[in-house]
Design a protein that fits this description.
alpha/beta, TIM Barrel, 4-stranded parallel β-sheet, 4 strands, 48% helix
């Protein structure tokens, strides 16, 4: 797996070189604060990779709706960073567990409101891109 991919041509080169996974990430934008966000780069990378590699996206995932957006735009997995780090501050391991429960519940609600009964029903037309 290669992490930090933000361009479709980079993702395609990685897949053609035998990479099994592409992690779409701008590392929190800390490296170059004007770089494209991972969620904005994801659709073009999804199209270029065409299902030939596992796609993971991270960055700015704070709520279940953010997970839904990542899945809708082609990610196989959506990585959660900061919320899981905040969990121990308010409750140790139980705090982390609670953060993940909240994200799961929010994702479930977002899916229900979008009319999706399963992850397989989450599609790109759920997200309006400007």
């Amino acid at each position: 797996m290669v992490k930090g991919v933000l361009r479709a041509d980079e993702a395609l080169r990685a897949v053609e070189a035998g990479c099994d996974g592409i992690w779409v990430s701008n590392h929190g934008g800390r490296q170059l604060d004007t770089s494209i966000s991972a969620i904005d780069a994801l659709p073009e990378i999804t199209e270029a990779v065409g299902g030939r590699a596992l796609l993971v996206v991270d960055g700015g995932v704070r709520r279940g709706i953010d997970v839904l957006k990542g899945l809708a735009l082609g990610a196989d997995l959506v990585a959660v960073g900061r919320p899981v780090v905040w969990g121990p501050a308010v409750g140790g391991a139980d705090g982390v567990r609670r953060v993940l429960e909240i994200l799961r519940d929010e994702l479930s609600l977002a899916m229900a409101l979008a009319g999706c009964r399963s992850i397989e029903e989450v599609t790109g037309d759920l997200v309006i891109r400007g």
